[in-house]
Inverse folding.
């Protein structure tokens, strides 16, 4: 079985599901270009925990973890089966990981999955990020999860390449970006393409406008799990680069494990 590359998507606003545009089309192309997963481990920015935690619900509920949005969004369900088996595999790869037997799928998971795998027939469970831990800690968690790529499991990391809601421009044209947002996302894209892991892990110190792009880190941390899960010297390829509301970089990346 060929290794299944871990991926990172910027999930943006839930409104994207009502008007997917270029980002939604990119998610669909991404899924179409991958082998069909046996199961999916969704690493979502919207589930935070103090320690590594995996969900193991047999039938995860669809969590509508947003407020004051149009009614049709609250009618969307994603009834994919869960995977206690995958959760158990995660616990074997990461000793001491906590297991939540009831965790459902938040919109960081089901929003991209609704467009990537609309039949909702692939087992899914979630993995939490830890805002109190840094990029290196999440990269190491990803490295421990690397065997999943060879076992038919898609590691789907979902966050946002930039995420400062206070900077959003409500009437910004599609793909228009504030200057600091473009400079941060361009820096990140260049470092990913060059496989400069050290610089990426030190992003809070060396990336331009780091604190403004991410006042809190939880929307970037999933990317480091996916990057680590691809193993040493992955081939990072941009699937989509774009912007919404001026402040949200909507980049999506796949990390193909090195051959051999």
């Amino acid at each position: 079985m060929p290794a299944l590359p871990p991926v990172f998507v910027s999930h943006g606003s839930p409104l994207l599901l009502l008007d997917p545009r270029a980002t939604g089309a990119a998610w669909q192309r991404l899924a179409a270009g991958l082998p069909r997963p046996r199961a999916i481990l969704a690493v979502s920015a919207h589930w935070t925990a103090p320690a590594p935690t995996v969900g193991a619900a047999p039938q995860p509920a669809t969590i509508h973890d947003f407020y004051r949005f149009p009614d049709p969004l609250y009618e969307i369900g994603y009834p994919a089966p869960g995977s206690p088996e995958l959760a158990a595999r995660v616990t074997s790869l990461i000793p001491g990981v906590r297991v939540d037997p009831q965790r459902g799928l938040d919109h960081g998971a089901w929003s991209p999955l609704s467009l990537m795998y609309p039949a909702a027939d692939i087992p899914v469970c979630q993995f939490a990020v830890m805002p109190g831990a840094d990029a290196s800690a999440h990269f190491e968690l990803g490295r421990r999860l690397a065997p999943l790529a060879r076992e038919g499991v898609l590691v789907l990391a979902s966050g946002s390449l930039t995420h400062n809601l206070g900077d959003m421009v409500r009437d910004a044209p599609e793909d228009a970006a504030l200057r600091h947002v473009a400079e941060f996302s361009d820096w990140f894209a260049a470092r990913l393409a060059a496989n400069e892991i050290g610089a990426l892990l030190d992003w809070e110190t060396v990336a331009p406008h780091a604190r403004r792009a991410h006042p809190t880190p939880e929307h970037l941390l999933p990317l480091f799990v996916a990057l680590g899960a691809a193993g040493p010297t992955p081939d990072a390829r941009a699937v989509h680069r774009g912007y919404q509301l001026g402040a949200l970089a909507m980049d999506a990346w796949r990390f193909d494990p090195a051959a051999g």
In short: The two ends are 13 Å apart (CA to CA). The chain has one domain: 7-256.
